[in-house]
Every structure is written in C-alpha cells, then in structure tokens.
C-alpha cells in the first residue's frame, strides 16, 4: 500500500493547478491522492479476486480475455467485455502518459551528472527524443519479456522498495543522529526505531525480490 501511494501519484505535474498554494494545501492534496490511490487499488484487487478467485493472474488483463470470461458470460458478451476492458486500459494509458513523462524526465536529468533538468526539459528536441527513446525501450521489453510480472516484481522490490521504505528510514535515522544524545526525546527514540524498521523491511524486500527471480 505504501508503494502504491508513493509511486502512483505525483504532485509536480499539478503544482500549477494549486496556485496560490501553501504547505497545508499541498499536504491535504497529497493525503487525498494517497487515500484515493489506496482505495482504488483495494477495490480493484478485492473485486478481481472475488470474480476470478484462485485463477487470478498476476497480470489481471490476462483474465479479461474471451476465453477467460467464458465461464462467467456467454461468448458474445464475454468477447465484448474483453475488448472494452482492453480499450479502456489503452485509453487510460494514453491520457495518463503525459503525467508520468514529465516527472520521469525531471528525475532522470537530475540524477545524471552535469545535467540541468530545466535546460533539458525546455529543449523540445531533447524532451521529445528522450520520451521516444524511453517508450521504444519499454515497447521492446514488452515484446521480448514473456511475462510483465517478473520485471514489475523486481522493480517493486528494489527501486520502489527504496522509495517507500529505505529512503524514509534513512531520513528518520539522519534526523535522530543530528541531535546529541542528551537532546534526544522519547519521540526521537521512537523515530530511531522506526527508521531501522523501515530500513530492514526495505532491504529484506529487495533481497527477496532479487532472489525470487532465480528460484
């Protein structure tokens, strides 16, 4: 749930819509976005499990095929529903893609040495070339990899696990270490424990995810 909340919404692409903004407005917006994200993920997961049970695939779109829906519906309604679900997924991806590409490029250029995100993203040729290259690479992976579940599981257990657990844990520990032992309060000690717990969970998840690819 933490991973879903931290990776499925970003405030950078909608900052201009919140002006004039202040910290309480930003906090409320992020809290609402995370609550909605968690609620949607829970509804999707519970509803699909209720319908397909133990036959639920890791990639749920595989269940929404004419063959997969035949045990629930007659042939024509099953085929119509399968087509509608696939088209809805395609349209949703096309509409949400710009919201992902902007923060993706900003983070990409910020992570590379001697690069200015603002300069690169204001250069239309560079912005377009990076987007096209990234989409082409994703398309190639989608064609060559037989199951999308393995790369997603690896990504979720490593990069996303770091964002959701390791980095917050490191920040919590850094906050505590900046104070002397005499200045630390009970809240600081609780934060110190929480930091180590988050670090441990994140690292264990990463190790388990990597190991599962070879077992």
Automatic annotation (TrEMBL):
The chain crosses the membrane at residues 31-52, 78-102, 127-149, 155-178, 190-211. Keywords: Amino-acid transport, Membrane, Transmembrane, Transmembrane helix, Transport. InterPro entries: AA_transpt_TM (IPR013057). One of its GO terms (molecular function) is L-amino acid transmembrane transporter activity. It comes from the Eukaryota. Residues 5-210 form the Amino acid transporter transmembrane domain. It is found in: Membrane. GO terms for cellular component: membrane. It is a multi-pass membrane protein. Belongs to the amino acid/polyamine transporter 2 family. This is Sodium-coupled neutral amino acid transporter 7. It comes from Chlorella sorokiniana.
């Amino acid at each position: 749930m933490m991973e879903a909340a931290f990776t499925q919404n970003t405030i950078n692409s909608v900052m201009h819509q919140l002006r004039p903004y202040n910290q309480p407005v930003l906090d409320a917006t992020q809290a609402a976005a995370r609550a909605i994200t968690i609620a949607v993920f829970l509804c999707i997961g519970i509803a699909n499990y209720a319908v397909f049970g133990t036959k639920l695939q890791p990639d749920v779109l595989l269940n929404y095929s004419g063959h997969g829906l035949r045990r629930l519906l007659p042939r024509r309604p099953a085929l119509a529903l399968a087509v509608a679900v696939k088209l809805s997924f395609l349209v949703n991806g096309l509409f949400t893609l710009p919201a992902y590409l902007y923060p993706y490029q900003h983070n990409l250029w910020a992570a590379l040495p001697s690069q200015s995100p603002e300069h690169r993203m204001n250069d239309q040729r560079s912005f377009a070339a990076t987007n096209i290259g990234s989409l082409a690479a994703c398309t190639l992976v989608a064609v060559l990899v037989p199951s999308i579940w393995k790369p997603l599981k690896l990504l979720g257990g490593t990069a996303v696990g770091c964002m959701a657990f390791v980095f917050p844990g490191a920040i919590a520990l850094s906050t505590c270490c900046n104070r002397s032992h005499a200045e630390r309060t009970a809240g600081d000690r609780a934060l110190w424990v929480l930091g180590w717990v988050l670090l441990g969970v994140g690292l264990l998840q990463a190790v388990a995810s990597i190991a599962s690819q070879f077992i």
